[in-house]
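Hey, resending since the last one bounced:
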Amino acid sequence: MKYVFTLSCLLLSACFCALIEAANANEKKLWNGFEREDFKISGRDSILVSPQNPRKDKAWIWRPAWFDAFPNADIELLKRGFYLAYFDVTHLYASPRSMDLMDEFYYAMQKRGLSKKVALEGISRGGAAALMWANRDPSKVSCVYVDAPVCDFDSWPGQSRKKLYADFLKEWGIKDTRNFSGNPIDNYERLAQSGVPVLIVAGDADVDVPYSKNGEIYKKRFFDSGGNIRSIVKAGCAHHPHGFENPEEIAGFIEDSQNAASSNKTEIYGAITRFKVRGGVRKSLKKFAEQRRGTVAFIGGSITEMRGWKENVQSELKRRFPETEFTFLESGISSLGSSAHAFRILKDIPQIASADMVFLEAAVNDDTNGFYGKYAKRGYEGVIRHILLLNPDAEIVCLHFASDELLKKCANGAIPDVIKSHEEIASHYKLPSVNLSSEVADKIASGIFGWEKFGGTHPSPFGHKLYSEGVKKVFDASEQLPCPENNPPLPLPADKFSYFNGDLIGPDSASVKCKSGWAMERSWTPKKKGHVRTRYKNIPLLETGSGGSELSVSFKGSAIGVYCLAGPDAGIIEYSIDGSRFKKIDTFTRWSRDLYLPRIIVFDDELSDGQHVLKLKTSYEKNPGSLGNSCQIIGFCVNGKQ
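The structure tokens again:
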């Protein structure tokens, strides 16, 4: 009997302990007046705080580190109906293991019915985890807010913090950071091109995670790749405090981003008025409806390269023509304007000869790169006429997007010079156009929205929707036009020197003769540390790293130039055409310090349309900001049939 009693006591004790353990596994209590649930996933601390009045979309914000640190924005968002989640990967240094664990937590939250798109919030080293996971699959993310984020592990923890640095190396399974590619500053392109908005907040007096070595580099590379990113740098602020005393800046950013991500409806922007239908695109629309097939091309810079307006337009075409099979040609390249497109079109988009509809945007990069007046016209007409010579059936839509500088030039209803030039060419060929730069300026002046809500030069989803609304206006107006039976005759060139015979001579062409100092790199990698965009990695190009390197190019046509990369060691080049006096051009730019920037440099574009010889050499002089006398040549730009 004694043994039975003892066994019963043991069983009761075990059951009681199990109940206590189960209760602790999903412990509920209050946090700042909101219900908090603590639990474990894969043995790691997890927390979910529930709002009193959840949003219909069950939106949530997610911290991968430092729960309860500077939480005023979190509290404000809980009041606005957001769930607050925490999953502890604080000391895992954004490693592959931590990414898999974050995947596991995300799917656990999906089982609880939370929104498929999450707002990520990363503080300090948590910023690295947030940015890396967002880049892993941006389709799961509505926005990213990071505060004093670690973006380069050589900066933090860095070798000076020996124990933390050893932990970092151990977690990643490496001995040192030579050839290390796991930093956020090297992993951002998928996120940048997705259009997901990113907000960085940092202090300019932060010595623990210096903004200049972390967030600033990330922002520059992200923006250069077409990303929608904004930074707020707090003067005199150290690593702490994070956030702001007034949470509106951060909470508003997250709420606006979530609203845009959750909405399937078009935003109300007011009427789109800055468009001209001219000849329209009636012929293409009719073909899509009757033949149930169509090819649509998108040519432009980073705003076209990133996800946004073009995907909206693709969706709109599929909505209007649900039984039509579409082929979409996407050819946006960051930093390049109309002149570059005119020279590269044959090599990069050979399928353009079969395109029914083409969207062309170049105002932002032509303005940024200083291509004004006749140079803006020659590049723009070069693209348009080139397409029409290849394919007279093509219908082209001209789009003029907005930037910080173009908005200033749109003040008081003014039309920027570059847009005037592009409009002159669009009018000459009777092409539809939408001046979205002036459209945005008008609506900002009217108080309909602000530039920050729009998302800046690389728009937020809100801004991209406005751009695609402009395209829909062209579709709607075109449907009211009669469909032409025949193509109108191609007018004479607006400028006989426009680049409509543009082409690229490869650096290994027989017409290129190298005398000294040049090497043909079949799979180029940079000699100096600097960011290289994906499309320019391991490509064939002609390179020299020293002054006095000479070459010559034989060509036929009215223009000659060079398509090159201008990085941290970009040099000064000297050129002579047909024995003329040598002239100098500095290839180093304000962006070159950290980026191998693609550049088109036209040496002369009013030559007689005959045979010529270009001589080119690198100077022994260099820009004070450059690290050397290098030149990397992707190709030689010519305007003439070779």
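The CA atoms of residues 278 and 627 lie 50 Å apart.

Sorry for the duplicate.
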